[in-house]
Amino acid sequence: MKSQTQLFISVSSAIVVFDVAGSFASRLLHFDYASLMWVTFCLYMACGYLGFQYRQILGGFLSGLIAGLADSTAGWALSVAIHPYMRYSQPRPTIFAVSLTIVFVTLVGGFFGFTGAVIAKGISLMSEDD
After folding, report:
1. How far, in Å, CA of 25 to CA of 6, rounded?
2. Which of 4, 21, 24, 8 is nearest to 65 (CA)?
3. Is the whole model's pTM more than 0.85, yes or no?
4. What is d(CA 101, CA 105) in angstroms, rounded to the nearest whole number?
5. SS3 string of the chain?
6. 24: closest CA among 81, 92, 88?
7. Do 49 and 120 meet the contact criterion of CB atoms below 8 Å apart?
8. In this structure, is the dihedral angle defined by the CA atoms of residues 80, 113, 67 and 107, taken in order, positive or negative?
9. Each residue's pLDDT tens digit in the chain (130 positions)?
10. Which residues contact 79 (CB under 8 A, 6 or more apart)?
11. Contact 30, 85 (CB under 8 A)
12. Nearest to 41 by CA among 75, 72, 64, 17
């Protein structure tokens, strides 16, 4: 990718596309949408891994934050509109619950993005030794 802005747009798009695809798949195949949470965490780490090439650890962390923000806003809104299969019924969220979820998921994205960047750093250090 040519710029960090393109990376952030790509990261956001990938997360939203995953949310939409996962929601449709969950609805059609009747598996619990929440079981995709681990795939989402892996995507956050991949975003951090890719973000590492722009600003080292900070770039990975920022990429994870952007992924979490996209997931907790546009991704969540589209997923709710699709009505994926959920094992338990979801109560109608309040403004406070939505705000808290956005902040929490964004920070979780940042954590896993940071983790992906640390992995990228470790790989780059190992390749320097060769």
Report:
1. 28
2. 8
3. yes
4. 6
5. CCCHHHHHHHHHHHHHHHHHHHHHHHHHHCCCHHHHHHHHHHHHHHHHHHHHHHHHHHHHHHHHHHHHHHHHHHHHHHHHHHCCCCCCCCCCCCHHHHHHHHHHHHHHHHHHHHHHHHHHHHHHHHHHHC
6. 81
7. yes
8. positive
9. 578 889 999 999 999 999 999 999 999 999 999 999 999 999 999 999 999 998 899 999 999 999 999 999 999 999 999 999 998 888 888 999 999 999 999 999 999 999 999 999 999 888 877 6
10. 19, 20, 22, 23, 33
11. yes
12. 64
**Position of tokens 């991704």?**
75
Residue 59 tokens read as 């770039």
